[in-house]
Amino acid sequence: MRGQISIEFSILLLAALLAVLIASVWPGLYGLAETGKVSSMSLAHATVTKMKQNIEMVFSGDVGTRKTVYIKCPPGNWTASGKELKFYRPNYFNISTNCSASIIMGNTPININKTKVITVYIEKINNTHVNVTITQ
User: Fold this and answer.
1) How far apart are CA 54 and CA 12, in angstroms?
2) What distances in angstroms separate CA 45 from CA 78, 80, 107, one per listed residue?
3) Do residues 125 and 97 lie in contact, with contact meaning Cβ atoms separated by under 8 Å?
4) What Rg, from alpha-carbon coordinates, does the chain have?
5) Dihedral of the CA atoms 90, 95, 97, 102 (nearest 10)?
6) Of 81, 84, 85, 94, which is closest to residue 120 (Cα–Cα)?
7) How far apart are CA 110 and CA 85, in angstroms?
8) In the predicted model, is pLDDT for residue 19 greater than 80?
9) In the chain, what percentage of residues exceed pLDDT 90?
10) Smallest Cα–Cα separation from 127: which of 85, 48, 65, 67?
11) 89 phi, psi to nearest 5 deg
12) Are 26 and 37 in contact (CB under 8 A)?
């Protein structure tokens, strides 16, 4: 019985080895630039999802409902047209979503130069429109 290890420890050891292997092989296979591009797209998708959820939440409230939201945002451009909210970065990604409310966004496109936390002010103007203001 000396020198034996438990099955749980074996599985834990193999999982740790696999995690290290994946973490070191992925950038090697696809390049660090591609890995950065994928992580930027993932953050962009999460950003658009959070923005949409908060717009829908404010829109479900009474006229005059306001909300301030802080969102970590990768570099890109925000635009809104009617009920469509769009976040894109040329040659990288183009993410759009449809909301229940018509979105009014000031001077579009709003350009975000680098990854940062943006402040978003959302206000329900009437029963069909929501005003969205993004500050950096």
Assistant:
1) 40
2) 13, 16, 22
3) no
4) 21
5) -20
6) 85
7) 12
8) yes
9) 62
10) 65
11) -140, 115
12) no
